[in-house]
Amino acid sequence: MSGLVKLAAAAAIGATVAGGATAVATSGGSHEPDNLGQVKLDVKAYYGDQVDADGKHHESDRSQWAADVRRQVEGAEHYLAIRLQQGVRNPAIVLDIDDTSEVTYGWEADNDFGFDPVKQEKAINDGAFPAIKPTLELANWAAQHGVDVYFLTGRKEHQGPASLKNLANEGYPAPAAAFFKPETTAPDYLPCGLTCDTVQYKSGTRAHIEATGATIVLNLGDQYSDLEGGHAERPVKLPNPMYYLP
Q: What pTM, to 2 d.p., does this model score?
């Protein structure tokens, strides 16, 4: 190792300061990402993490997350009520499932916020994800006022039957239709076929719903990719600091 390289390495490790302490050096102008362990603790605090007798995590109805969800959904319901008073034709709302209609926090925390498709499949089959109460209340209020409810999710097509069974068991109204990511044959309204990214798939499906004559007043999702691409009067972003889906 050359003298210059040795000096660079020493500088990167730290510099000795008065009193014998060592100050860790950082590269000029760079920003070190937040510590992953601390981020996980922050996420748990946001959801008001609680652990039951079986060691399973779950969120608290009194958490900041719950308050933020409630505020967003109440605002959405207020907007929907105004549009109904204005006589909007064939009103509809579109709901994502994961972390919009059902909360996955407990399962995520139990798995240290790592995604395992096999475990996710089992969780869906077992009905492990509880309903998000404000979304459930919105969906039922909408259905009772003549609004069609649609589910539009990135879950795969073969996960549809179990997903719909769980949503019904949780008290969600029967949807006008539910759309799952196609796995074998894509519908004609998705020109990107089986290679659609999330925005193409979801915006294209909303355009298809509109083509049936529906007016999508609300589009609720926890990812920005759930909401981009238009074909809804009002996109509503629910909080989800656990993962990001482009």
A: 0.87
